[in-house]
Write a structure and sequence with these properties.
Elements: H1 2-23, H2 26-32, H3 36-62, H4 64-72, E1 75-99, E2 105-130, H5 133-142, E3 144-145, H6 148-159, E4 169-175, E5 178-179, E6 188-192
Antiparallel strand pairs: 1-2, 2-4, 2-6, 3-6, 4-5
Helix pairs in contact: 1-2, 1-3, 3-4
């Protein structure tokens, strides 16, 4: 899974470099002069953005009320995570937080550690909807760690599809099977990515 993701980033980065050379012009010349690290960061951002759009489409297809709540939200964040369990569970992933009115993006990371009973891995996405600028800014600028009460918020949003926010936030979790009735986000940390926000 990780190798596949790296290969995808590499392929997108190579495409960006070739496109910059083929298109020509002042703007594309500047793009061609970017360092390999800058091109790779841009490729990762594009993959994160594409995953976020796909995740939102899946969420809205499963829950009309989630789409209604999204329309009321100041901003949102979408994360793509891979969780592995081998006695001790752990996981990590990337995501993006977006101000709806301006489209301003902040790229973020997530990580979790816990006690796992099984063996294997689980890929899932988490969507946060933020009611106001204060809640959004606190999440992005200060980071956020989900405690046990966060599962109750996620459960209300997922299972009951409420149209209201709880403490300025609504949380949805999706797996390959679809929208989870009881999201499990406790013990997960979210923080701003220094590397991905470099331009």
């Amino acid at each position: 899974m990780r190798n596949t993701r790296r290969q995808l980033v590499g392929a997108v980065a190579a495409g960006l470099a070739v496109g910059a050379i083929v298109l020509g012009g002042v703007g594309s010349l500047a793009a061609a002069e970017r360092t390999p690290k800058e091109i790779k960061r841009q490729a990762r951002r594009q993959i994160i953005d594409a995953t976020a759009r796909e995740t939102l489409d899946r969420l809205f297809a499963k829950s009309k009320k989630a789409k209604m709540l999204f329309a009321k939200a100041y901003g949102y964040a979408v994360f793509d995570n891979l969780k592995l369990s081998f006695g001790i569970s752990g996981g990590g992933g990337n995501g993006v937080a977006v101000v709806r009115s301006t489209g301003k993006r902040t790229y973020m990371k997530m990580g979790t550690v816990g006690i796992g009973l099984g063996l294997g891995g689980q890929k899932y996405q988490v969507v946060f909807l933020f009611q106001d600028p204060q809640t959004f800014s606190s999440f992005v600028d200060k980071g956020w760690q989900a405690d046990a009460s966060a599962n109750a918020v996620a459960g209300n949003a997922g299972a009951n599809a409420q149209t209201g926010f709880v403490n300025g936030m609504a949380i949805y979790q999706l797996t390959e099977a679809g929208l989870m009735l009881q999201a499990d986000v406790a013990g997960t940390k979210y923080w701003k990515s220094r590397k991905l926000n470099r331009y």
